[in-house]
Specification:
Blueprint lengths: L3 E8 L2 E10 L4 H13 L4 E12 L1 H16 L3 E5 L3 H9 L2 H4 L1 E3 L2 H10 L2
Parallel strand pairs: 2-3, 3-4, 4-5
Antiparallel strand pairs: 1-2
Length: about 120
Amino acid sequence: MSEFKIARRETSNVHVLELKGYLDAHTAPKLEEAFQELLKADRTKIVVNCKDLSYISSAGLGVFMAFIEDVRNKAGDIKLTNMSSKVYNVFDLLGFPLLYDIFKDESEAVKKFNDKK
């Protein structure tokens, strides 16, 4: 079975999810749960750091699509950072750069949230 972990932390009033391992149909529910918890707590400034994400399937991509509207309806956003070229290519193939802000570095994404004050 694929291993997948999510580390959670807060920096500058932005909630960071650090993804590690394989995000696929078996592990996608963990990410769904993380997004649900953040939404329930009205934490809608979310940065997903993909530095240690080694694989993402269509099921994993579906989790992002399932939550982006709810997050944006609460005046928040999901920003993606630190993707390997392999993971970025999957996002790019499906047009995600048109829907999401994708940054090379987590600090850029956090700064973007805080510049909107």
